[in-house]
Amino acid sequence: MKDFDIHFKWVGAPTWVIQIDNLKIACDPVLCPINTVQDHKYFRAKRRSEPHYGGKDFEDIDFWLLTHRHEDHIDSYGVVQINPHTKVYAHKNLKSWLRLIYHRNTEYMKWGAKATFVKEDVKVTIEAIPCVHASNFLASKLAGGVNGYWLDIEKPASSLSVYVTGDTVNHSKVKRSLEGRTVDILIPNVGGGGLDRFGGPYTFTAETLMDITELINPKRILPVHHKSFSLYKEPISKLYALKDERVLKFNEGDSVSV
């Protein structure tokens, strides 16, 4: 795609690694084993499947994107996979996870803030995008803050854009931040998290995701954040049934070329 060599691996839940030429990016390390029960204060969630990662998956990461502090996005098994010398871009509510070891290399980003990462001839502009993590005001307040991330990746004569949605619904606040943009690669958190609970869904369903795709017209869609936990209620078959050729099909542990 656009003169870039791109490989994507879905580890499970919201955790993934993408290699774009010689740039390696990872997101939200939650690596607890199958059958782990997480206490989310107002409810519990059980891991349905093992995370799929090997010894080299988290080696030589150039930077991590951390969206928020919920335990189905970062846990004690996952945080230790972040090398203390690796750059981290995070929501401010992750300070309790990161401040003792990772504080020197972590940049806490507010919505709309931008940062720049440079490696050799590749420049990445990282922008924190608003997220609304529930379908009503009270539930979104209880859920707390979340960042999505928009990446503009440039090298001589070529460019590439990636939108990492984080946990969000298709709220007007999110859509306003995306107006006038188009994206090459969309990595959405789907699965209809909390679809059966107060304020749900907390993440995209197949239907609400299509509302966002109409706005930003992605060339490729790499859906994650489904199946792995009992909290994720909508099967990925709902998205596949829409027969959108931009949606790549893969399972936990799969690596795909984009």
From TrEMBL:
GO terms for molecular function: hydrolase activity. InterPro entries: Metallo-B-lactamas, RibonucZ/Hydroxyglut_hydro, UPF0173_UPF0282_UlaG_hydrolase. Residues 34-226 form the Metallo-beta-lactamase domain. Keywords: Hydrolase. Gene3D superfamilies: Ribonuclease Z/Hydroxyacylglutathione hydrolase-like. Signal peptide: none annotated. Pfam families: Lactamase_B_2. This is L-ascorbate metabolism protein UlaG (Beta-lactamase superfamily). It comes from Flagellimonas meridianipacifica. The lineage of its organism: Bacteria, Pseudomonadati, Bacteroidota, Flavobacteriia, Flavobacteriales.
